[in-house]
Amino acid sequence: MKPELRRVGECQAPVVVIDDFSGDAETIVAVAEALAPYEPSGNYYPGLRRVIGEADEPANDYVERTCQDAAQFIAGAFDVDGFDLVEASFSMVTAKPTELNLAQRAPHFDSTDPKYFALLHYLQVPNGTATAFYRQRSTGIELVTSTNASTFIDTAEAETAALPLDSGYIQGSNQFFEQIGAVEAIPDRLIIYQGSLLHSGIIPVGMNLSSDPRIGRLTANFFLRGH
Question: Which structural domain, as residue segments, surrounds residue 108?
């Protein structure tokens, strides 16, 4: 493993980047492929998801091993004693840019809880993809809290509605959001960040939106709550 601690934005939010995390991404891709086909996510995620449960061996073994191996980095970067797993899934971006709803065309947050963390393990990733972090220009919001959440949401809804209907996935900065950092998607790279930090996947124009785990953009997504 090759860990690195980065900080983004005026808030200097920590983002942990670990290369060669598992040492065997190909085996994990095979595990993910065995669980396909996936179902539509049913939330803001622009694609398909397969939530991993305890009965999904060896996928659940992979989830437990990932949490154990990531624990030291979470404790060091975010000053928590431990965490609970909220959910883990294999995910694939499959929505066409013209199919996105307003929320999917703007950066988002996962929780206002500062101890709610996202782990993103890149498995099969097309060239040019990434995860980017943002500041809402008009409000200056980078981290969404229980105090500023309504301001962020109301502003984002109004501003995103003004974008062209064919704007698709956000690419870098635009008139409403400034990109404050980005992590390139590389197979077997794991990143860890606060779910309250505004973020979005970078999905390049022309990317293969296949639902096949060996062809499309396959990631493992973990949500954890620290304590």
Answer: 2-226
Supply the DSSP string of the chain, one letter for each residue.
-EEEEEEETTTTEEEEEEESSSS-HHHHHHHHHHTPSPEE-SSSSSEEEEE--TTSTTHHHHHHHHHHHHHHHHHHHH--S-EEEEEEEEEEE---GGG--TGGGS-B-S-S-TTEEEEEEEEE--TT-EEEEEEETTT--SB--TTTHHHHHHHHHHHHTTS-TT--S--S--SSEEEEEEEE--TT-EEEEETTB-EEEE--TT----S-TTTSEEEEEEEEEE-
Number of domains in the chain: 1
pLDDT digits (tens, 9 = 90+) for 73-83: 999 999 999 99
CATH number of 6's domain? 2.60.120.620
Mean pLDDT of 47-76: 97
Q: Residue 43: pLDDT above 80?
A: no
- How much is the average pLDDT of 95-116? 95
